[in-house]
Amino acid sequence: MRMLCKFWKLLVSVLVLICTSCSLRYTDTSSGQTRIPEFTFNAALFKRYEDNDVSFELESSCIEQYPSDDITYAANADFKSHDAKQDLSGTCKLLGIQAEGDILYFLDDTIIQNQSDNLGIETKSLKWNTVTAQIVSDCNVFTTVQNNGMEVSGTGFSADSTTNEYKFTSMVNGKIETESFPEGNHE
Description:
Strands 1, 2, 3, 4, 5, 6, 7, 8, 9, 10, 11 and 12 form a 12-stranded antiparallel sheet that branches. The termini are far apart. The chain contains 1 helix and 12 strands; from the N terminus they run αββββββββββββ. By secondary structure, the protein is mainly beta. The longest helix has 20 residues, at 2-21.
C-alpha cells in the first residue's frame, strides 16, 4: 500500500511538472509564420499601366510579400515613374511598398532623380507618403540634394514632392556652381 501511495505521489508530481512546464502555445498559429514570404519573385520586372501607357516600372533581384504585413519588399530595386508632370527614376538596396496608405520606404544607398526638374537626392533612407506628397529622412541620416548646379547636404531632410521645396533640420554644407564670365564682361 505504501508503495502504491508513493507511486501515485510520484505520478501526480510528474504530471504537474509536465503540465506546468510546457510553454508551447498550440492555439497560436501566427508564431513562426510571419517571416516566411507568401510570394517570392526572383529577377522580377513589374510594370503598372494606366491608360495603356506604362506609368511605373520596378526591376528587382527579389520581390517578397509577407502574409502578416501589407508591405512588399524589393531588393536591389531600380524604379522609374512616368507621369505627365515629372519623370522620376532611382535605385536603392531595399524598397518597401506599403499598399495601405501609399507609403514608400527607400533603404540603403538611395538615389532618386527627377529629370523634369533637374533634381537629385542621395541618402541612406527615405520615407515617401505619396498621398500627402511628403518625403522625410530620419533626423540623423545624411542626405544630399543636387538641383541646377547647387548641392546641399545635411541631416533631418524633409520635402514636398509637389512643390520640390525641401529643408534640413541641421546645419548644411554645400556648393553652388555658376557660369563663369570672361574677364571684364560681367553682366
